[in-house]
Every structure is written in C-alpha cells, then in structure tokens.
Amino acid sequence: MKLNSKLMITAALLMGTAIATGNPVDRSSRRGAHDDDARLARIALERADGMVRATLAQVGAGGNACLRTAHLAANASLKNLRADLALALASCINEETATPAKFDECLEEIFDEFAEGLDEIGEQNDARIELCSLLGGGVYDPDLDQDAFVEGVNHEYAPFLDGAEWVYESMTEEGLEEVTVTVTGDTKEIDDIECIVVQDVVRLDGVLVEDTFDWFAQHEDGTVWYMGEIAKNYEDGELVDLEGSWIAGEDGAQPGTLMLAVPTTGTTYRLELLLTEAEDAATVLSVDETVTIGLGTFTNCLMTMDFSPLEPDAIEFKYYAPGIGLILEEKPEEGERLELVSFTSGS
Prior knowledge:
Blueprint: H1 5-13, H2 34-59, H3 65-96, H4 100-135, E1 165-172, E2 175-190, E3 193-204, E4 207-218, E5 224-235, E6 238-241, E7 246-247, E8 256-259, E9 268-270, E10 281-293, E11 296-308, E12 311-321, E13 325-331, E14 336-344
Antiparallel strand pairs: 1-2, 1-14, 2-3, 3-4, 4-5, 5-6, 5-7, 5-8, 9-10, 10-11, 11-12, 12-13, 13-14
Helix pairs in contact: 1-4, 2-3, 3-4
C-alpha cells in the first residue's frame, strides 16, 4: 500500500492551471507580474507543507522502537524533499519568470519531481515497516565487546584469508561488469574493534566505476560483523562521490551482520544501518542449495535474499559455497546474473 496515494491527486492539483489554489487561475492576469509569481510560489510551498503534514499523519508515530525509527526517517526525508522544492521554486522564479511558458513548464517539472518524491518516501516507509515486522521491532543497537573478537575472518561462507581473491562477471545492459574482491591483508580499527580490510573493485567494459574498502570482524561465536565501508564512485574515470559510505559508531551508523554464525532458514538480519543511506538487510532462504556455474556444481550452498527499504523493488538472491564464499548473485528485476569466474584461496 502506498501511504500517499491520495496525495498524488493533490499533487496533480499543484500542476498546470490549478497550482495556486484548488481553482483555475487566469494566467493572463499574472504574466510578467513578479508579485503574482511570488504569491504563487508562497502558496505552492504552503500546499507542499500541507502534503508533507498529511503524509506524516499517515505514516504515524508510536509503536515499537523500530517503527518509531521508521517514522522519524520518513520525517527527515520529507523535510529534505520540501527543502529541495523550495530551492527549485527559487530557481524557477530566478531563471524563468520573464518567459511565462517556460515558468509554467518549470513549475510542472518540479511538482512532478515532488510528487514522485512523496511516493518514494511512502514506499520506503512501507518497506521499513515490513522489515520491522521481520526483525521483531526491538531496538537495534548491537553491544559489541572488542575482547570477544578473534583475529581474522574464516567463516565457512566467508573465508576471508589474507590474499584471497574472487573475480565475478555479469553481462548487463550497459556492458560487461567485472567485480574483483581481494582480502588486502591490512587491518583497520573501527569502534575499537580490529577489522580486516577487503577491497571491492567494479569495472564496466574495463572502466573503473567503483572502488570500495569494506571492514569485517569475526566474533568468537562465529558471527561475521560488517563494520562499514568507504565507497568511491567514479564516472568516466573521475571520482564523483562517496555515496554509500558509512562507519559503525559514527553519525548514528550501526554495525551489521555479514554472516550469521549458524545461518538458519527464515532468519532476517540487518547487513548495515545508517538511516536513509545504508539500510540493507537479508533473509536466509536455504542452507542446502545446489548451484551450477561455469566453474562447476556446488552443493550445500547458503541462499539469501538481500534487499533494502531504500530500494523496495530491488531484490538480490545470493549463493555462498562452503569454503569459497559468494559464487552467484541474481537480480530478478534486471535479469542479471553475477557469476564467480575465478577464485584464489588465501592463507
């Protein structure tokens, strides 16, 4: 269910001739009139605020800690969306007021984006609520004792020994994607816990698009914790941003679970948590899958479904072979298949 489905009708009223009020506006009476443009912008923002309040009312407060967290995350996203609308309105007035037709077009465009943003926030909130039901709704604040961690990571499904390397390939709509994962042998202290460093490099038709350093640590009970990442994103060989980066213990980020000590079918867990930035989770679907790829057939594989409230429609199925780790990743929506083509064990 989309929380703001009724608001989409309201958004439509904000476009075209009904932008100022619920009634048609005679545009000929305001063409070239700066006062009228300012008035319309003010009314539009008031209408947007009303839409935000209505969405908040439907999101609702109360409930358990997980639901309250979902509500506050939606609240933050709504405020950011409203701020973006205000800036976009300012740009329309500054750049397009002299040309009424372009001004009208500009207004329609930004309210289209605003309505889409509301819809996205509603879908994300629905997904967070569903995840809360799977997790049980309690507070998520792992209390990790630094003395309870062992050196290195040697989980059956995540054998991150020094020097180990995995190479994957996938034919996508954009070209051949190659992913190389390497255990660097370096360590980094995150939130007082010593973590191994794993580099993840993604290339598209040989051109670098992402270079990420992930940090993992294994608890003495066998659980492999995901402590954060620095993700460097590239376009045309140039670094463009660090989107997706997070560090446990900083800015509200919490560590996630890369691998359960003993994966059990039906268990759902957080892979990471930095609200509105990194919210991946996974559910164990099977622990005895048989998987065939170019390198051969593997038995007793772990199968998980990975997903994120930030992208409710994006689901990934991952398969892990004992003693090797991830061997296959399937993305049903895109029809893509990332397959292990080379593996070098570490020491």
